[in-house]
Write a structure and sequence with these properties.
alpha/beta, 7 strands, 21% strand, globular
């Protein structure tokens, strides 16, 4: 039987100066609907059934149009125990929900190589923020956010770490991932290039269905 799910996320903005403000999202939790009212982020990490690593947030937005995102300086990013708000879904998250349905999972976590929220023009925004910033704190895998990663990336037995950040991702972001503790964890994903893993949304029903089928085969032990 198909379950209903809710999406929760932590949204914020990075301010470099008055002309350079970047929309960001640090984490997504997708939760089966009948558990969502009882779920408190960070209170029971053992409840998470899988963690997905994607490239960057796309079209997911807060459901409440009046929600005001916190604006912070890039030098002080540390998204620990932040309040998650209900968010919209997009095709990428719908693909992950398909996996949840097949696996009968209750909760998954999604974190990204970069928090920069962009459905198009991500590389341009990445170049812009890199030009103004002395660090890579827009990525949870940066050394500046190690304590946050320690909280959000806890892999237990019978729980897969699934990479799906697309073909030829940004080399600097992949290096941050590989150099962090995440790089030492066994990971699953559909290989696509030297350091690439097929993205969940391949922009076509047949391709998307194939992605689901191939990933299910890779993680059938869980």
């Amino acid at each position: 039987m198909e379950k209903n799910y809710k999406v929760f996320a932590d949204f914020y903005k990075i301010k470099i100066d008055d002309k350079n403000i970047f929309q960001c999202r640090s984490v997504v939790e997708i939760i089966v609907d009948n558990l969502s009212d009882k779920f408190i982020y960070g209170s029971n990490k053992s409840e998470v059934d899988a963690i997905f690593i994607l490239k960057n947030p796309g079209k997911c937005r807060p459901i409440n149009p009046d929600f005001e995102e916190e604006i912070i300086d890039i030098k002080s990013i540390l998204r620990l125990n932040k309040h998650l708000v209900e968010a919209s879904t997009d095709q990428t998250l719908k693909q992950l929900i398909e996996i949840m349905n097949y696996k009968n999972w209750n909760i998954i976590r999604v974190i990204n190589l970069s928090d920069i929220r962009s459905s198009s023009g991500f590389e341009t925004e990445l170049q812009q923020i890199s030009k103004y910033s002395i660090n890579s704190a827009h990525s949870i895998f940066s050394p500046e956010r190690k304590s946050e990663l320690n909280v959000k990336l806890i892999i237990r037995k019978n729980m897969p770490l699934i990479c799906a950040w697309s073909y030829e991702p940004n080399a600097e972001l992949v290096k941050l991932f590989l150099d962090s503790q995440a790089g030492k964890i066994k990971r699953f994903g559909i290989s696509d290039g030297k350091y690439g893993y097929k993205h969940p949304n391949l922009h076509g029903k047949i391709k998307n269905e194939k992605w689901v089928k191939e990933l299910l085969e890779l993680i059938k032990e869980f």
